Amino acid sequence: xxxxxxxxxxxxxxxxxxxxxxxxxxxxxxxxxxxxxxxxxxxxxxxxxxxxxxxxxxxxxxxxxxxxxxxxxxxxxxxxxxxxxxxxxxxxxxxxxxxxxxxxxxxxxxxxxxxxxxxxxxxxxxxxxxxxxxxxxxxxxxxxxxxxxxxxxxxxxxxxxxxxxxxxxxxxxxxxxxxxxxxxxxxxxxxxxxxxxxxxxxxxxxxxxxxxxxxxxxxxxxxxxxxxxxxxxxxxxxxxxxxxxxxxxxxxxxxxxxxxxxxxxxxxxxxxxxxxxxxxxxxxxxxxxxxxxxxxxxxxxxxxxxxxxxxxxxxxxxxxxxxxxxxxxxxxxxxxxxxxxxxxxxxxxxxxxxxxxxxxxxxxxxxxxxxxxxxxxxxxxxxxxxxxxxxxxxxxxxxxxxxxxxxxxxxxxxxxxxxxxxxxxxxxxxxxxxxxxxxxxxxxxxxxxxxxxxxxxxxxxxxxxxxxxxxxxxxxxxxxxxxxxxxxxxxxxxxxxxxxxxxxxxxxxxxxxxxxxxxxxxxxxxxxxxxxxxxxxxxxxxxxxxxxxxxxxxxxxxxxxxxxxxxxxxxxxxxxxxxxxxxxxxxxxxxxxxxxxxxxxxxxxxxxxxxxxxxxxxxxxxxxxxxxxxxxxxxxxxxxxxxxxxxxxxxxxxxxxxxxxxxxxxxxx
Amino acid sequence: xxxxxxxxxxxxxxxxxxxxxxxxxxxxxxxxxxxxxxxxxxxxxxxxxxxxxxxxxxxxxxxxxxxxxxxxxxxxxxxxxxxxxxxxxxxxxxxxxxxxxxxxxxxxxxxxxxxxxxxxxxxxxxxxxxxxxxxxxxxxxxxxxxxxxxxxxxxxxxxxxxxxxxxxxxxxxxxxxxxxxxxxxxxxxxxxxxxxxxxxxxxxxxxxxxxxxxxxxxxxxxxxxxxxxxxxxxxxxxxxxxxxxxxxxxxxxxxxxxxxxxxxxxxxxxxxxxxxxxxxxxxxxxxxxxxxxxxxxxxxxxxxxxxxxxxxxxxxxxxxxxxxxxxxxxxxxxxx
Lengths: 669, 336
Hints:
heterodimer; A: alpha+beta; five-stranded antiparallel β-sheet; 19 strands; B: alpha+beta; four-stranded antiparallel β-sheet; 6 helices; 31% helix; disordered N terminus
């Protein structure tokens, strides 16, 4: 007969379950050891083959051997059974083995729970929107399968089954959202399985030597995204400040920790200062520094601004980090401290005579430092200096070689060369690395800054003006900027300083699509992945619940869920009462209509007596009343069919007793 | 019977007794749906119990693990999925409850069976509203579970079967109507009071048991009445006025003309199956034997009577008489 709770599984269900598990486990092949992937893939294919040809299904002993083999393989690949990778590998192989001994519905339930677990554990490897959508679809498939199992017989309409699954998930969504928004987050991990993720983070370093930035320029990876709360500054002012670099040995330039320890100096307000407030979502860097618009004046808790205007976070940025900051443009900085002065004039042990001679030509008596800087920039403009991604190799004295021989370089070459030249000329200077520009995404109203926007520039200290930004790269003659072929493919996404040509309509379309994708990704990052403790607090204070403690949150959350459940239960109850018996309800409506024309049904009057009485008083309605009475009696006390009910409903609804008495005619209108 | 029960209870110890007491306590206080005069019971929203199934507990435990893991690693997408699964589970709970609300159950008396066979109680499930009810299961302490899906506006007939182990009237009594649809995480159930029953005839003794002694073949006290209805006496030509049932239509078909079958009758000895004439066995065995005699005699279309300590059924023949006799045997008061 029909299925009971723990009956044998149909072959069809085994097939579907195996296929779903295979699809759920498939993305893991990117992360697991190839040997394990092969083993699990083999098991799953064997399972699928056994659905078609049951004789290939391994027996109990072979299963035992396979189980031992799986454990051994995990041990060989990872040397442990714990930890993220080994744990997930073990879970997946056990799941695949469980599939090979599916017999009863109970087995299916256990497998389904394991598969749900496996889906969620995949987010330890990859948290992309694509994977989330994929796994959502697959897990809904699992729910549909369980729904089919809970029926007495398999559903005849697959589509109906999917529709119901979708409906239940949509009904579960409000509860999920309440829980997600209100569930208190932990401030730090309870335990650490040592999930890697530091490796392979590329980005700006806190030292500079020729080639350290040009290596980044080919990466389209997003460095950070910025949404401005105030208006946006001009594109030319989008200098995103990272580490400031002071010390040099002639080849490599490094930070000055002693300056960083100093408090920020007072700055003099300028007449024309512009203030920008913005929020940065920084991708993980594995470093402490954050990026802010040059020059930052305020940053939210968890980070501080140093004397050389770096923004340093208290904790290393190992996760995507969101912070708010404020920058002021056009403000004069304070005088140099003795320490800063020493560091900003520090020179490598040897300066080649050619360099000294070049600087001397700019240093005629009476020239102000500002004029010296202008002369240096003019030198870069006039002389055949090229801006290129593929600069030739430089020897032991890279600055000398670059200035007088190769004359081809990238921003780090120009920045270091200018800084050194200024120091030789006695003007304090330092280098700042960071990003320049970024692409505005009109769809999400934010700025995307990519690794390819990495940049380095120079700052010089001028008396009366303080630190002034000087970007020698901007001084190169546009004809001598070499556009690399790879960047040509980027179209509008190419870094600002290479975006010289019209990308064309198809590129524009593709670029628009990629902007849309980035918007989705940014929204995903912001509202799902980044919704940690900090963001939750922000959200709660945004809706006026900022004062709630964790205990209150739990109460609110539980209350919210219970209220939702209660509301839907009450809604069902109301519907139940309304729909309890359509016949009774329709008869009630009929009686009310009669009452309106003055024929009230007495409480003791059964349908027959009532009909008889009103039939006598209103002979014009007699024919209609008889039909209604017969239908009612049949539906209520006899074997009324669905057609009867339909006709009854129609008759009652159309029934208009009216007030007029029309002899000889029916009451039909 | 009772003796046996006492022994089992004593041997299983106090734990089982306590469990039984707890069960009885809840059973007595449990709300149940009562049936109306027509034997129909409509399940109302407040008569439904709901608890997680074992699988539901497993699901909850897995969600808890996912929650801890996701919280620990600040894995918000994992958290979102976990909460979505929790939300789906809760929505499933509502659906499970709603899957029973409004269902009308109608159980009818079952046809008589012999002891040892299965009685079958016809069940009708429907919902006057246009609602689907899937995976509705009927079960009870004495009933074998059966399940059915109800598409929108389609009543379903099914049969709840119960093994008849004691002769008499088998009453399934309060039974359970339950569902785990849609997700199997929760089980919702309602108790339905039913007053239906099925007659259980005694288990017939093994066939071929001839009445051991002269079971009292007696001449018909009213003597040979010549023409009767019982024993075929031979053909005779048709006379107008003979009932058509007596006409030998097969002979007519063989073109032998109209011939009437003549019955000599009612002169055979009367067969009496008598409780007191049986060997001194225990009552149930005697009833089994009597049951066998009645069945055999009815198969041979004999004329027989039944004499029990509490009642006597005059000799007759035919299906109705057989059932009257079997009913008498079934309802024979238990002697202990």
